[in-house]
Amino acid sequence: MTKSELIAHLAAENPHLRQPDIELIVATIFEEITDALTRGDRVELRGFGAFSAKKRDPRTGRNPRTGAAVPVEGKAVPYFKPGKELRERVNDGPAPAAPRPARAAASS
């Protein structure tokens, strides 16, 4: 599901709300999660899961083309740990839908 599909679904489920209001709500939620992770905070949504930023230490990587050693700086990466209720619903829910076909590469 894409962000626009989420907004359309929420609009269909909540006809008393205007679509621009729903767009603002969704954007605000995503922005607040992003801001919290940027500050190094953890965001926990009970029954859904927790977002956090994990630190990756600096390391020496390899250039796949030449095999030369390349220094890779340390960084923080976003991490999501699903909550118990979400895991149970996903595991006990209906069979997943067929995956979408991959987009064809643009030809030159």
Automatic annotation (TrEMBL):
Which Pfam families does this chain map to?
A: Bac_DNA_binding
The protein's UniProt keywords, in alphabetical order, are: DNA recombination, DNA-binding, Transcription, Transcription regulation, Translation regulation
Composition-biased stretches (Basic and acidic residues): 82-91
Q: What is this protein called?
A: Integration host factor subunit beta
Q: Which family does it belong to?
A: Belongs to the bacterial histone-like protein family.
**Record-linked Gene3D superfamilies:** IHF-like DNA-binding proteins
- Describe, as the record does, how this protein assembles with itself and its partners: Heterodimer of an alpha and a beta chain.
Q: Does the keyword DNA-binding apply?
A: yes
Annotated spans, Disordered: 82-108
Q: Sorted alphabetically, which NCBIfam families does this protein's record hold? A: hip, PRK00199.1
**Which InterPro entries does this chain map to?**
Hist_DNA-bd, Histone-like_DNA-bd_CS, IHF-like_DNA-bd_dom_sf, IHF_beta
Q: What task does this protein carry out?
A: This protein is one of the two subunits of integration host factor, a specific DNA-binding protein that functions in genetic recombination as well as in transcriptional and translational control.
Organism for this UniProt entry: Belnapia arida
